[in-house]
Amino acid sequence: MLATKGRAYSNSHVVSWVNEMAKMCKPDQIYWCDGSEAEAKALLDEAIATGVLIPLSSEKRPNSYLHRSNPNDVARTEELTFVCTPTKAEAGPTNNWMEPADAYRKLAGIFDGAMKGRTMYVVPYVMGAADSPFAKVGIELTDSIYVVLNMRMMARMGQIALARLGASDDFNRGLHSVADCDPERRFICHFPQDDTIWSVGSGYGGNALLGKKCLALRIASYQARNEGWLAEHMMLLEAESPEGETHFVAGAFPSASGKTNLAMLVPPPALGGWKIRTVGDDIAWMRVGADGRLYAVNPEFGFFGVAPGTNYHTNPNAMRTLERNAFFTNVAVTPDNDVWWEGIDGEVPERLTDWRGRPWTKGSREYAAHPNSRFTAQMANNPALSRFAESDRRRGDDRGHDGYGRRGSPGPDGDARVLRLRHGDVLRALARDVGAHPRSTEALHRELVSQGRRRHVPVARLWREHAGPRVDHRPFDRSRGCDRDARRLGAAPERSPSGRARSRARTPGRRASRRSG
C-alpha cells in the first residue's frame, strides 16, 4: 500500500478545508501529493498492484497503460451536470440548474462516508503556465488513483501549484469520489460563487478530472464573464507560411468533430511549405490585449482525446504522441498486448480482448473498443508542439487581417483591427491556394475531419465564394472595449485582499458553462 504522507502543506486554508472534507468523507488515510517523479513511480506501482492500470507491451508501447472503467461509467453525464447559481438565469439557457443549498445538501448525503476503506488523495494543480498572472490554482480531493495519475498529465501538478498559491485562499475547491459508481447517485455540480466543484459517482475523465471541463470551462467561463475575458471550447494552432510568417488560428467545434485533428494537422501536398504546430486541442482562454488584439492561451498540459477513428491518416501526429508514455481508457487489446480501436491502421485482428476484458472475434456486432474510449498524453509527447504551448507568451488570431495570409496594417489611428470570420471560414489563410480546386479542397476536408467519427461535421469546406472574412475596420476603443462583449461580459467583481471575489455580477445572458466537450 502507498505510504501515507502526513500534513505536507503549509497553507492553512488548504489544510483546514481538507480536514473538513475528510470529516465528511471519512477516508482511512490522506495522501498529500507533491508531484515528484518518485511519487509518480509509487502511484503507478500502486495502480498496477490494485488492477487499476494494466501495463501494455514495453516494446510496442513503452511506459503505457490500459484502464477499464465501470461499464456504466463511460462518458460525461451532461444530464447530471449542474451549474448551481443563486438564480436559474445565471446558469444560462443551455445548462441544468440546481439551487446551491439543495445541491450541497443532496451531495453531502452521498459523500458522507463515501471514502471509507479508501485513500483521499490531495492533488494541487495549476491550469495555465504557473508564472502567468492568469493561471488558476485548484486543489482536487479524490479517492481515485486513476484520477491522480491522469491529473499529472493534464495539468501542472504538485509543488509547482503550491508555490503559485502561497498562503492565499484563492483556489478552486474540488471534491471528487467514485463512491459506489451508481448512476442514480451520480452528480457533477459547479458552484461558481464559491469557486467550488463537487463530483460524485463517476470515475470517467470529464466527470472526474476536475481541472478540465469543470474548472477550465464551466467555472472559468463564469469568472470570465465577470472579469472581462472568455473561456472557450476551442482548439489553437500556429501556422507558419512558406515565407516564414506566423499566424494563429482558434476554432470552436463540438466534441469528436475534429478539433484535435485540426490542431495536429499535417498540411496536405497542396499546401506544401506550410507548417502547423499545436498550441491546444480543446480549451482556450481568450483576452483582448491593450493593443486591441485578441490573445489566447491553452490552460491544459496534456491531451485527453477520443481514440476511435484516430490513425496515421486522420492524425499522424496524435499517433506519434501515443507511441509512449500514455494512458488508454476502454480501448481493446491485441494478443501481443498493444492497443486497438475501430479505425486504427491495419487489418482488423481475428481476435482481441474488448474494452470490458472479454474475448472478441472479428465480425462481432459489438464494438471492440468503446466508441468513447480515450487516450491521455502530455503535450510534450507531441512532435508538432508549438513553442508557445507550454509558456505564457501571448498569442492570438491577430494576423491575416485581409483573409489571404498577409499581415494586416494598423488602423488609421494606430489601433489594431478586429478580425471577424463568418461561420465555416476555417483556415482561410492556408486554403487560399486550394479554394479554386474542389479536389484539393476535398482533400483538405478529409485531413481536417476524421472519417471514422460517428458524427460528421464539415468544418473545412472552404469554397471560394464563402471564404472571405468580414473585417471590422473601426478602431478599437481601449476605454470601453467591444460594445457587444461589454454588454454580455458584465462588470468585474470587487476583490478582497486575498484575491477572492467578494461579489459576482449576476447578469443573465451569457452561458455560465460549456456543456459540450
Structure notes:
By secondary structure, the protein is α+β, with helices and mostly antiparallel strands. Helix content is 22%, strand content 21%. The strands form seven sheets. Strands 1, 4, 5, 6, 7, 8, 9, 10 and 11 form a nine-stranded mixed β-sheet that branches. Strands 2-3-19-24-18 form a five-stranded mixed β-sheet, covered by helices on one side. The longest helix is centred in the middle third of the chain and has 17 residues, at 211-227. The model is unreliable at 392-517 (pLDDT under 50).
> What can be said about the biggest beta sheet?
9 strands, mixed
Tell me how many strands there are. 26
**Low-confidence parts, pLDDT < 50 over ≥5 residues?**
392-517
Which descriptor suits the 3D outline?
globular
The separation of the N and C termini measures: 35 Å
Structural class: alpha+beta
Figure out the total of helices: 13
Rg on CA atoms, Å: 23 Å
Tell me what portion of residues adopts beta-strand conformation: 15-25%
Helix content: 10-25%
Q: What is the average of the pLDDT values? A: 80
